[in-house]
Write a structure and sequence with these properties.
Strand content: 5-15%
Order of helices and strands: HHHHEEHHHEHHEHEEHEEHEEE
Radius of gyration: 53 Å
Oligomer: single chain
Helix content: 40-55%
Distance between the termini: 80 Å
Structural class: alpha/beta
């Protein structure tokens, strides 16, 4: 029963759906025809969206079919791998105090710093018990990034790597689309090493040149909703915090984490090593994308050629049908004309039979009122008949019309003086004059003229 149901299901496909099914299978390379059919049904047989979603799933991109609109038109983040097994984690500890004065300063300042940080954490904890953390509600991610950039430049200056002007999701999508590394910097205002790191490391020109030429650089303050959201996703342990993200196996993967107060030279060295270790994944992604683009381009060219060929075939078929229609119409016209001719012949023969009955009997030769008429037909033969002089000339017309050698359309004329004998009945004159009224004598030679000659 299941096999019969499946067979009936295939039969229910229209020709257009069958063509889309085969086209979708060619584009995606999916061999399972039932799976192709299910995917197309899920997308209401929209082959473009179905193909795009299939490729997006392979790359870890979001579904484009009936997906809910993001808040503030914020694009959805691509699929992420936050903790791959081979993730590189670099934790840089603060250097210990050097010399008696640094140790003395450290010992004096430590209690104050401890009390300050403890009280600050207690205040924040108390406030969060009273009201929810406002950072959990992300309403303007781009605005959070823009405000951080403005605040950073007002406080720390404009010497820094080029900040990405957009949300975290936009940065991820751009890095994926452009096949570039993405460096994420989370800025912690309250951490003691943040100021020095921004001035001495991020402000270093060699590091700025390295980052600007090799990757995208996104940064945000963790005290803002957008920065807090990214902080919860990446789960940093301390500040300063950097994460390096790249497309690998169709997912945006956090391949390295760098935590702690690192110097510019050491940071460049570590970033260079990370880029070298993961460049192969970008090369593979580029090759796969180029192959897919080539396949799609080839498919589009093949489809265009097929459509052009199909259009030419359709044009030929249209012309052939037009020619055949003309031939059929001509044949039908000839058949109609033949049928009409036959009908006219049948109608004429019927009329002749009726008119023969109306013609009165031929009078005797010695009748004093007899009129002898000789009719000369167009082909030269002669026919003769006698009428009474007081009879209507229409009987002369009937006599000529009923003769087998007489043309169907004719008129009767005299020879000299030449005039037409008004013998044919008409609507205006259904009863023509008599032989006597027409001035015909006892013996007359009349001529039948073919009107179609």
């Amino acid at each position: 029963m299941a096999a019969m149901a499946e067979e009936n299901e295939d039969v229910d496909l229209t020709q257009e759906q069958t063509e889309k099914l085969l086209h979708f299978q060619d584009l995606t390379g999916i061999e399972d025809i039932d799976r192709c059919k299910d995917i197309l049904r899920e997308h209401n047989w929209d082959i473009e969206i179905a193909v795009q979603d299939t490729f997006n799933k392979r790359e870890g991109a979001p579904n484009v079919f009936n997906q809910p609109e993001a808040v503030n038109n914020e694009p959805r983040e691509p699929s992420m791998n936050l903790q791959p097994t081979d993730q590189r984690v670099f934790t840089v500890a603060r250097p210990p105090p050097q010399g008696i004065y640094q140790w003395l300063y450290h010992v004096i300042i430590f209690p104050f710093r401890f009390v300050y940080s403890t009280l600050l954490d207690l205040v924040r904890f108390t406030i969060r018990l009273i009201r929810p953390d406002p950072r959990r509600n992300v309403t303007d991610p781009v605005g959070d990034v823009t405000r951080f950039i403005n605040s950073y430049e007002e406080t720390l200056g404009t010497t820094h790597p080029t900040f990405y002007q957009g949300s975290y999701s936009q940065a991820l999508n751009d890095a994926k689309r452009e096949l570039r590394f993405l460096c994420v910097y989370l800025h912690g205002d309250d951490h003691q090493d943040t100021g020095d790191f921004c001035r001495n490391t991020l402000g270093n020109q060699d590091l700025i040149d390295f980052i600007n030429t090799r990757m995208l650089f996104w940064a945000c303050n963790t005290n803002s909703p957008e920065g807090f959201r990214v902080s919860r996703a990446l789960k940093e342990n301390t500040y300063p915090f950097l994460a390096l993200i790249v497309l690998r196996q169709n997912k945006m993967t956090v391949v390295a984490r760098i935590e702690g107060p690192i110097g510019p030279g050491e940071l460049i060295e570590k970033l260079e090593r990370i880029l070298q270790d993961n460049e192969a994944s970008l090369i593979a992604a580029r090759a796969e994308r180029e192959e897919r683009d080539f396949t799609q381009t080839l498919r589009r060219e093949q489809d265009a050629a097929y459509l052009e060929s199909l259009k030419a075939d359709q044009e030929k078929e249209r012309k052939r049908r037009e020619e055949q229609d003309k031939i059929d119409q001509e044949k039908q016209r000839l058949v109609d004309e033949e049928n009409k001719r036959k009908e006219m012949i049948q109608e004429r023969e019927r009329m002749k039979e009726e008119l023969k009955i109306e013609i009165p009997e031929e009078p005797a030769v010695d009748d004093p009122d007899v009129v002898r008429i000789v009719l000369k037909l167009p082909h030269g033969s002669r026919i003769e008949r006698r009428f009474l002089k007081n009879q209507s000339l229409k009987f002369l017309y009937y006599f000529a019309f009923c003769h087998e050698d007489c043309p169907d359309d004719f008129h009767v004329v005299t020879n000299f003086p030449r005039r037409t004998v008004p013998c044919e009945p008409s609507k205006n004159g259904p009863d023509p004059p008599s032989f006597e009224e027409a001035g015909l004598g006892k013996n007359e030679m009349l001529f039948v003229q073919d009107n179609e000659a």
